[in-house]
Amino acid sequence: MSLPDSNSLCRECGLCCNGVIFADGQLRPGDDAARLRELGLAFVRPARAGGEKFRQPCKAFAGCQCQIYTERPKSCREFDCLLLTNVKAGNTREEDALRTVRSALRRVREVKRLMLVLGEADETVSLGKRFRRLQRKLENDPSDPDAAGIFGDLTLAVHDLNMLIREKFYSPS
Which of 9, 18, 110, 122 is the most exposed place for a label (fewest CB within 10 A)? Predict the structure, then answer.
């Protein structure tokens, strides 16, 4: 059995680029921020010291492919999710990894569907930030019982997605 091309799994997934796993990406020493801006990355200034960050979902991510792949930031070059790491190590079969990716993407679609029902349609912001924004909105105006029920469903869907992400894709230290 040959090891899979890491890009084959990544091209199916994209969770590290589309704002599901990460809210922002961190630039590292040696990254050319000016060039990355020219290439279209959107930057945020962090509240704390630590350098510039670029927004997720990444502006260079389109069609489950990086449009600036050869010039992408170091954090992107060096990141392998747990699932990919396990496939490369031979601990997870590629077919099983693809099933996990597809399950995660179904969960993302359900979270986005529920967000849309609640009026949250801003795809330019990470999923976590969108969820927190909706939470604040509903806490400030709890008068709609239908919205409260849908938000309950959304909370469970986000939790379900986060558990899968933490178990299979990314577990911060």
Answer: 122
C-alpha 89: how far from chain center:
23
> What number of CA atoms fall less than 13 Å from residue 115's CA on the CB side?
23
pTM exceeding the 0.85 threshold for the entire prediction: yes
Question: Going edge to edge, which strands form the sheet with 24-26?
Answer: 24-26, 53-55, 43-44
Instruction: Report domain extents, the chain.
Output: 22-79, 81-173
Residues in the chain: 173
The candidate with the shortest Cα–Cα distance to 81, out of 10, 173, 162, 5, is 10
Other C-beta atoms within 10 Å of 132: how many?
Answer: 13
Residue 151: both structure tokens together: 């938000």
Q: Are 48 and 65 in contact (CB under 8 A)?
A: no
